[in-house]
UniProtKB/TrEMBL annotation:
Domain of life: Bacteria
PANTHER family: BACTERIOHEMERYTHRIN (PTHR37164)
Protein name as annotated: Hemerythrin-like metal-binding protein
Signal peptide: none
Coiled-coil spans in chain: none
Lineage, broadest ranks: Bacteria, Pseudomonadati, Pseudomonadota, Betaproteobacteria, Candidatus Accumulibacter
InterPro entries per the UniProt record, alphabetical: Haemerythrin_Fe_BS, Hemerythrin, Hemerythrin-like, Hemerythrin-like_sf, Hemerythrin_metal-bd
Residue stretches making up the Hemerythrin-like domain: 13-122
Keywords: Iron, Metal-binding, Oxygen transport, Transport
Species per Swiss-Prot/TrEMBL record: Accumulibacter regalis
Pfam name, any one: Hemerythrin
Family the entry assigns: Belongs to the hemerythrin family.
Length: 141
């Protein structure tokens, strides 16, 4: 069983965002599996670096979608992304410097880092998109 399993309750309803979230889950599972497998710090560092870079890319994609949808909490959500990115970036830097001891608490933190953001913030965007009136279809007369 995966350390972090995708569930429908995490779906934002925007396919690109959901696919990218699922890939972030895969990266976190890879980090967990590598840690549990006792692999060296270098391998953990590589996975964490991929997580950092992909998270940054994902946040930019998500922000572009939110901006296009005129999401009212766009600025606040961008600030949350910046904080999330800096948190995971610092972990990556600490691991590379040898000052981070990776234990299960670290792995759980990384899982929570993503899931909490999705559940508490991204799903608010999902609700906004679902409640927004859809543009009228052009008349076919």
């Amino acid at each position: 069983m995966a350390f972090l399993s995708w569930r429908n309750e995490y779906r934002v309803g925007v396919e690109q965002i959901d696919e990218e979230h699922r890939y972030l889950f895969d990266l976190i599972n890879a980090f967990h599996d590598t840690h549990v497998g006792g692999t060296n710090r270098s391998a953990l560092g590589q996975i964490l670096n991929r997580l950092v870079h992909y998270a940054e890319q994902h946040f930019r994609h998500e922000e572009a979608i939110m901006k296009a949808e005129a999401y009212p909490a766009f600025v606040e959500h961008c600030a949350l992304h910046e904080d999330l990115y800096l948190t995971i970036f610092r972990l990556s830097e600490e691991l590379a410097a040898g000052s981070l001891r990776v234990d299960m608490e670290t792995v759980r933190f990384i899982r929570s880092w993503l899931v909490t953001h999705i559940v508490q913030h991204d799903l608010q965007f999902s609700d906004y998109v679902a409640r927004r009136p859809k543009p009228a279809a052009p008349d076919e007369t």
